Amino acid sequence: MFDGERAKFDSESDAFRLGEVVATLHSTDPDWFETFRNQILAAHPGLEAAAPPGRAHWIWQLLARTEKLKPAFAGEGAVDQSASVWPAEVIQRFCGCCIEPRHAVLTRVVCFHGDLHHQNLIQGSEGRYKVVDFEFTGVGPAVVDLCMVLRNSGFFPSEESKIRSQTKMLEGYLKGLGLTALSTHDVEQILLECSIYSFAIWADNIGLFDIAQLSPADALARIPLLEEFVASIRSSAELQSQVVQSDSIQDLWAASAQCASLDELSLHQSSAP
User: Fold this and answer.
1) CA distances to 26, 139, 146, 159 from 7, in Å
2) 167: how many CB neighbours lie within 10 A of its CB?
3) How do residues 177-195 score in pLDDT, each as one tens digit?
4) What's the rounded Cα separation, in Å, for the pair 8 and 85?
5) Where in 14-153 does DSSP place strands (E)?
6) pLDDT tier, 4 (very low <50, low <70, confident <90, very high otherwise)
7) Which of 30, 158, 250, 273 sits in a 20 to 30 Å window from 151, CA-based?
8) Strand order across the beta sheet in which 129-131 lies
9) Which of 165, 152, 147, 164 is nearest to 107 (CA)?
10) In a 10 Å sphere around its CB, with 0-12 CB exposed, 13-18 middle and 19+ buried, how is residue 72 labelled?
């Protein structure tokens, strides 16, 4: 049992320390994952579509939260050979979905926590932060944890200082990795790319976690809308500013060209027999 209490994040120095903690986690040797990844690939040959980018592909985050594969990611046993994840066509389309972040820091292969919100950090009696609850841990791109940390209001409770605290968190993370030579522009780009990725993964109705729950036909119809949404953000300085400042997918969605398309698609699906 851990000796400590829920960590509090009230200052920019707390945010900096948080970044150092995430860097320590991401410095863990990721080779433990290979046994489980090979089991998953053997059980589901269609997942070979994820193999070209290897362990850095975002799809391992999605699979870590898939019920029948979760035990393997948690180190609790072999993959359920009878489990069917998605048809090969859907897997190919998922793996080809253009949401990868555009910064090398975020595509590094790391041991990710997978559920790194403020209630999964406690502060020990000696003052050190400790990470708990590794149910969704796996190996994949660093952006998995960073986007979750940066979008969690429990880590950054003050709206007035949120961007400054997020920047401090990233500075602590880069320092923990020994990447202190990166520029202010790099930090800003990392924050933007984490924000885009967060919306692409978690957004209601259009994020990949919601798409993964749809039928194969509906999933294939929804993915192009997500890609258009991400492209619209990347091509608009105004939307880029909004995606960093806003926690609301509705605001961004309404400002993009895909709003009517999603409404029409949802109506079509709801009327299908």
Assistant:
1) 20, 25, 18, 19
2) 21
3) 999 888 999 999 999 999 8
4) 39
5) 109-112, 121-124, 129-131, 138-141
6) low
7) 30
8) 4-6, 121-124, 129-131
9) 147
10) buried
